[in-house]
């Protein structure tokens, strides 16, 4: 059965790129453009991984990560934060919120897929 990945990204081009790359690798993907519905979609889709943009238009990805980690149904799902925030202390702040992985934009396909696979394998173990 294909591993399921929820992609929370409000930029249309980034969301399509992430989803196309993941689908080409055999993952089942659920795209979410609106951060306000992300956790509800996660509860319905039950992903093996959540890819979370941090700088969403309507809500902070940091806030969504914290809410997911406080939710008994979602807390065990690993989160890969993908963000333009690449300044001093940003990675630490994002990991402190509960993200297990962190990638700075612009994202290259190789490191992106390596990060996805590492978190999915870790979740299975």
UniProtKB/TrEMBL annotation:
User: Modified residue 4-aspartylphosphate is at which positions?
Assistant: 53
- Whose protein is this, by species? Novosphingobium bradum
Can you give the residue ranges of the Response regulatory domain? Answer: 4-120
Q: Which InterPro entries does this one have?
A: Bact_response_regulator (IPR050595), CheY-like_superfamily (IPR011006), Sig_transdc_resp-reg_receiver (IPR001789)
Question: Under which name does UniProt file this protein?
Answer: Response regulator
Q: What is the lineage of its organism?
A: Bacteria, Pseudomonadati, Pseudomonadota, Alphaproteobacteria, Sphingomonadales
Question: Keyword set for this entry?
Answer: Phosphoprotein
